[in-house]
Write a structure and sequence with these properties.
- By secondary structure, the protein is mainly beta.
- It folds into two domains: 148 residues, PK beta-barrel domain-like (M1 Pyruvate Kinase, Domain 3), CATH 2.40.33; 93 residues, no CATH class.
- It is built from three helices and 20 strands.
- The chain has an eight-stranded mixed sheet with strand order 2-1-15-14-18-17-16-20.
- Strand 7 and strand 8 form a beta hairpin.
- The chain is globular.
Length: 260
């Protein structure tokens, strides 16, 4: 169950805007809130409720990048439209991030309009006050899955399954399939950061969507249910784990992964 000495980080993926396409990174920095600027922004509907790709699959077709030094946010749409500019914020407003009341500030500019046109409904881009744009807050600032677990699902599916579909922050190699299930409550050194894993990542309809187009193209929940449905996990249909950052630090592809 412990990572072997050869266990390493094989992929990292982030997005500046929750719900938009995740993009590969070679390295990142972890702190108590997660990867720096990962999911810094999110989207809300007219009632202030957080919206993601589970409801609006077309969001997967948009790539967002954020330059924190200059505070420049850039969105590139599938049709070639690019919306870019310096982030300016409005007055605080009340939103709901899943079931959590969350204070946020609207991002002024053309981004909300462009995303609203894509979605076919009014959306507003906001920045969380306190930057807690990950699903489970600080206790779930890091998500992780092993390559062997992904390969196990490929065998069940009988076809390639793009790892981006699961929107995990860290992918590792060097352990058996689903070894990470046994790391709940344990501390794991990932590169220069120390993480304590707190629970299993239960899955929803978003994993049935193609990671580029957002079109539903894989019965991923049924596949997971066929061999993971009866397991004793902290969330149903678990695939991967989440945890909190105890010690921040740099994490890069190729870094060692060691159970402490």
């Amino acid at each position: 169950m412990s990572p072997a000495p050869r266990s390493v980080v094989t992929a990292l993926a982030t997005t500046a805007v929750k719900g938009l396409r995740v993009v590969a990174s070679r390295e990142l920095t972890l702190d108590a809130s997660g990867a720096t600027d990962d999911r810094r922004f999110y989207l809300v509907d007219e009632r202030g409720r957080m919206v993601n790709g589970k409801r609006i699959g077309a969001l997967n077709s948009v790539v967002a990048g954020y330059d924190r030094d200059d505070r420049v946010l850039t969105m590139t749409f599938a049709g070639g439209e690019v919306v870019s500019g310096v982030v300016e914020l409005g007055e605080q407003l009340a939103t709901r991030f899943f079931s959590r009341p969350t204070r946020a500030r609207p991002v002024l500019g053309a981004w909300s309009g462009a995303l609203s046109r894509l979605a076919g409904e009014p959306l507003r881009l906001v920045e969380s006050v306190g930057r807690l744009g990950v699903d489970r807050g600080r206790v779930g600032a890091v998500s992780l899955i092993s390559r062997a677990s992904l390969e196990g699902l490929v065998r069940v599916a009988g076809a390639d399954v793009d790892a981006r579909r699961f929107r995990m922050l860290v992918e590792i190699d060097g352990v058996r399939a689903h070894a990470e299930d046994g790391w709940i409550g344990r501390r794991v050194r990932i590169g220069g950061a120390l993480v304590r894993f707190a629970g299993h990542v239960g899955r929803c309809l978003i994993i049935t969507r193609h990671p580029d187009s957002g079109v539903v193209d894989l019965p991923a929940l049924d596949l997971l249910r066929s061999y993971r449905g009866g397991l004793d996990t902290s969330e149903p249909l678990a695939f991967g784990v989440y945890g909190e950052v105890l010690e921040g630090g740099r994490v890069a592809v190729g870094d060692a992964v060691l159970l402490e």
